[in-house]
Amino acid sequence: MSHRSPIRPEDRHGFDAIIDARSPAEFAEDHIPGAINCPVLNDEERAIVGTIYVQQSAFEARRIGGGFVAANLARHLAGPLADKPHGWRPLVYCWRGGLRSGSMVQWLRLVGWDAQQLAGGYKSFRRHVMEQIQALVPRLQLRVLVGATGSAKTRVLHALQTQGAQTIDLEGLARHKGSLLGALPGVPQPSQKHFETQLATALEALDLAQPVYVEGESARIGRISVPVPLVQGLRNARCIEIEATPEERLAFLLRDYRYLGDDRQALADRLAQLTELHGRQTVQRWQAWAHAGELPALFDELMRLHYDPHYGRSQARNFTRWDERQRVAAPDLSPAGIDTLAQAIRALD
After folding, report:
1. How far apart are CA 234 and CA 230, in angstroms?
2. Helix (H) or strand (E) holding 274
3. Which residue(s) pair with 176 in the sheet?
């Protein structure tokens, strides 16, 4: 491959490694899957160079920045790149395919490696992500799992994947369970950009000729927005409703959300968001149960008074094929019962 050949985002899989030459903060917000971060300027250095460029001159910024770059490249060559063989072929990118990745590519080529630069940098990869979502989502044969709160939809999705079915776990990508109480303790949600990158990567791996199972979601999962093409795809897809008894759902919720009892104040604070909808007296009762660790009583009322009354109406409003939905009974939401339920769902196709 010629050093002058422009490398597109879709060509990235042909390289031995992908190097993100941007700063750690840029890398943390989003990056090409599998990339390693070897910044030519760290966050502080990038800010210094930017300030000098604005306040003094482009020459002075390049002079100071060049020193930072040389020191950082030396550290990378002596560290994470020290064991790379002669035939190693890395792909390097920065924000827009400019000086940062260009300087690293030059040095890596001087060493003797066939280093290449991603044309357009991360910005071109970002466009590729959004184009892939726009192009692939309408081609998916979606099967949307729906069911009242506590129907173990996410666990069923995982069981389907274990059994060999194609799935997209939106809540897993968003690191959030999608409800008022869905935040995971100690687990921050990704940036919107990184969520979309993960989604596009998952879409690219799918066989579009086969069904894809996904959980019915609203347009937002925590603070993450589901891309509009996928929201539209979910709304128009075939629905499979999981029907479990209130008793079985409550037992499942108590197992699946038992960690909420570990931080009772945080649970009570989140319940305060329901005051306008259910009134101060009801929410104060729920908060008292939260403080006391009385999760069975709390979850039982949340199901009966908050989640269930709105379930049927919201589903009929959100899914155009709701009246055609296929129903699957779920008498047992234990791990074994969920495996059996997944098998029954696959048999519908």
Report:
1. 6
2. none
3. 183
3-state secondary structure of 190: coil
Q: What's the pLDDT band for 180 if we cut at 50, 70, 90?
A: confident
Matching residue, tokens 């047992």: 332
**pTM exceeds 0.85, yes or no:** yes
Whether the predicted pLDDT of 75 surpasses 90: yes
pLDDT band at 45 (very low <50, low <70, confident <90, very high): very high
Structure tokens at 87: 């035939």
Distance of CA 116 to the CA centre of its chain: 28
Tell me the pairing of strands 238-243 and 141-146: parallel
Q: 66-99 in b/e burial notation, b at 16+ Cβ within 10 A?
A: eebbeebbeebeeeebeebeeebebbbbbbebeb
Model confidence at 158: pLDDT above 90: yes
Tens of pLDDT, residues 237-250: 999 999 999 999 99
- Cα(116)–Cα(6) distance, rounded to whole angstroms? 9
Inter-residue contact 199 to 140 (CB < 8 Å) = no
CB of 39 closer than 8 Å to CB of 21: yes
For residue 167, how many C-alpha atoms fall within 13 Å in the half-sphere facing its CB?
25
Could you confirm whether 94 is annotated as catalytic? yes
How many whole angstroms separate alpha carbon 84 and alpha carbon 307?
Answer: 56
Q: Which position among 94, 136, 200, 237 bears the catalytic label?
A: 94
**H, E, C per residue of 31-76:** CCCCCEECCCCCHHHHHHHHHHHHHCCHHHHHHHHHHHHHHHHHHH
Q: Cβ(295)–Cβ(283) under 8 Å?
A: no
Q: What is the pLDDT of residue 1?
A: 41
Hey, what are 76's tokens?
């990378």
Query: What is the distance between the alpha carbons of residues 155 and 339, in angstroms, rounded to a whole number?
Result: 9
Q: In whole angstroms, what is the distance from residue 59 CA to residue 209 CA?
A: 56
State the burial class of residue 305 (Cβ atoms within 10 Å of its Cβ: 0-12, 13-18, 19+): middle
